[in-house]
Amino acid sequence: ERAANPSVFNGVGALSDGFSVPLLANIGNAKDAKKAAAANAEGVGLFRTEFLFLDRADEPPVDEQEKQYAEVFAEFPGKKVVIRTLDAGADKPLPFVTDDTEPNPALGVRGYRTSWRSPEVLTNQLTAIARAADASEADVWVMAPMIATAAESADFAQQCTEAGIKRPGIMIEIPAAALTADKLLTDATFASIGTNDLTQYTMAADRQLGSLAELNDPWQPGLLALVKASVDGATTAGEQLAGGATTSDDEHHGDPIRPVGVCGEAAGDPALAVVLVGLGVSTLSMTPRSLANVAEILASVSREDARRIARIALDAPSAADAKAGVRAEIPLLE
Ligand code: PEP
Ligand code: MG
């Protein structure tokens, strides 16, 4: 086992052959953003906006939202900040949009679905984000949580466009979204895989139940297959948008047409990070304290290594076999 905190992240995520893998931070407020910037995160891959409003009985006014978002954007001038619209419900209820009488909140009106009942809450939030983004120097991307269908993705992208937001995207947290990523990424311009929820829904195992931890493991072969399906779908969407031309993913890299990142806890596991990159994931977003560890392990493998290692994980019969097989191939983790 390696020391938990080998060093400080130098701010440039890359494989041993120089292939760039931007390492981003998951944050919930301006204080987190400051910490992430101090930890040299290359940007923000997940700004969980609902964390700002968990204790609120009423919808926060647009002006107040704009100010809170602006404070975060200000920490990352010239850098990417992926902000997520309210992910209310289940483990994160917000009184002004969630219905606490639902029998199965994790399968209920949560995430993007709350906008069916309260469309103005999403419209107001997009207005606040667009205003804060316009006034900032950050490269602001906006994504919706819990997207299940192409119609929802198209709808969200349209609402973003109407609000003046240039980079609408979706989270892939539902197996159906992973399996139809080619269709979802026609309108949405990027995807971020939320492995916490994607694992929960793939394994039908409540993420909050410790007794199900063995099932609730992102190393499960079923979860890895869905990550691959998401990346493959995004590649297909990109090729179709490029007019059927087959461009190699090296040409896409740096300015990929439909990039897929990961922002669930899985991205902060160094061995799993190698697998995700080998599957074609282009950015990883994690808690800032994982950045140095993940960067160190990524820098020890080439792109070819990562692809070969990803294959080992995909072909393993169990999560435990995948983990053991992958660690045996990464000298620093052996
Ligand atoms: C996820 O589901 O993996 C995710 C990043 O979102 P959250 O943990 O906030 O549900
Ligand atoms: Mg989630």
Q: Would you kindly provide a written description of the structure presented here, covering whatever features stand out?
A:
The structure is a single chain. By secondary structure, the chain is of the alpha/beta class. It has 14 helices and eight strands. Strands 1-2-3-4-5-6-7-8 form an eight-stranded parallel barrel, surrounded by four helices. It is globular and about 50 Å long. The protein starts with 22 loop residues before the first strand and ends in a 7-residue tail after the last helix. The relative contact order is 0.13. Residues 46, 48, 87, 173, 194-197, 263-264 line the site of phosphoenolpyruvate.
In short:
The chain is an alpha/beta fold and 334 residues long.
- What is the gyration radius calculated from CA atoms? 19 Å
Fraction of helical residues: 40-55%
Q: List unreliable stretches of 5+ residues.
A: 249-255
Q: What ligands does this structure carry?
A: phosphoenolpyruvate, magnesium ion
**Principal-axis shape:** globular
Q: State mean pLDDT (0 to 100 scale).
A: 94
What characteristics describe this protein?
single chain, 334 residues, alpha/beta, eight-stranded parallel barrel, 14 helices, 11% strand, globular, binds phosphoenolpyruvate, binds magnesium ion
SSE topology:
Layout: E1 23-27, H1 30-38, E2 43-48, H2 62-73, E3 80-84, H3 114-117, H4 119-134, E4 139-144, H5 150-163, E5 168-172, H6 175-179, H7 181-184, E6 191-193, H8 195-203, H9 221-241, H10 249-252, E7 260-262, H11 270-278, E8 283-286, H12 291-298, H13 303-315, H14 319-327
Parallel strand pairs: 1-2, 1-8, 2-3, 3-4, 4-5, 5-6, 6-7, 7-8
Helix pairs in contact: 1-2, 2-4, 11-12, 11-13, 13-14
The protein binds phosphoenolpyruvate (PEP) and magnesium ion.
